[in-house]
Specification:
Chain lengths: 184, 184
């Protein structure tokens, strides 16, 4: 069942970030009553807020916090869904420095509690988007911890992961991969 | 099985907000490997960011956005968990203006996809925290839409909901209610 999808350059839509593509995908899933999955807001440490009279409160000083969890979560066919999305310009591998230890620990916890966790990786040069189950990403992370390579090769991702079919609606049909892996 | 819990004033901890109590509860659930449930970051519309040399990016202008979903979500025993937490100083009812239409629609979606959705309501005057399943809150919302009362009486919440046992660890044991309702 590996890589059953044909890459569709027609809908590649250069210039749209992976996050925008996924948000559009999730809006489609929601509108079509397929799933309810959302991006979490960016975590900010708010330091100073002004409360001007007769108008809305304004945040005047805030800092980006390192995320302790992942980008997206929600529910699909009764199951808890949780994933991190990452783009890389790298042509041959995915550098593990794109992830944080907290995120790996979070994915481990999700698996432990019976949720479905994965990473969506876009190789922007190739314009290919892959689905990689969290259990594999955790293995690669631990390989690094044990002195192994600091990245996952594209070939490894092609072998253990799945190329996600991209199209018009949904734009990045990652739930189709889940159907194959978890719901069939 | 209604209200099986004895209110415990010892741990009432006046001065701690419901959000703080729930964050502490969720940290306990996580550390004890019981569940993985987190508060979503506050959604902000970021307008202006400064990038000072040699130091972290600073958000200089941002506005609080009306949340389109709920406060908390995560996974417990394989199920998707989603809830909104609200405090009221009102002694006899919970005003529905504390919720937004978007949040009600979100809860409907969660139920539709097989998730577990609910509201946690704290009556600060009484120092009581209730669990109310989303299906009931949706009914009360629709009653209002159909010209009915603009609040849910405390008595209705006592009848349809469950008083949550408060203690030391976990502080607000809402998963105990879920065990009774969904896992027994
Ligand atoms: Mg990301
Ligand atoms: Mg709230």
């Amino acid at each position: 069942i590996h890589n059953p999808y044909i890459k569709n350059h027609t809908y590649s839509n250069r210039g749209m970030s992976l996050e925008e593509e996924l948000n559009e995908t999730n809006e489609y899933y929601s509108a079509a009553d397929i799933a309810c999955i959302h991006k979490k807001p960016t975590p900010l440490q708010i330091v100073k807020v002004d409360y001007p009279q007769r108008s809305a409160a304004v945040v005047r000083e805030a800092y980006f916090k390192q995320p302790s969890t992942t980008d997206y979560n929600g529910v699909y066919k009764g199951r808890y869904i949780d994933f991190e999305a990452k783009e890389t310009k790298n042509k041959t591998s995915f550098p593990l420095q794109n992830l944080h230890l907290h995120q790996i620990e979070h994915m481990k916890q999700i698996l432990q509690h019976g949720g479905i966790a994965f990473v969506i990786i876009k190789f922007t040069f190739h314009n290919e988007i892959y689905f990689l189950d969290a259990k594999h990403m955790i293995e690669y992370w631990e390989r690094q911890t044990n002195g192994g390579r600091k990245s996952v090769t594209k070939q490894e991702i092609e072998t253990k992961g799945y190329l996600i079919k991209c199209g018009y609606r949904p734009r990045v049909d990652y739930l189709h991969v889940l159907d194959t892996l978890y719901f069939s």
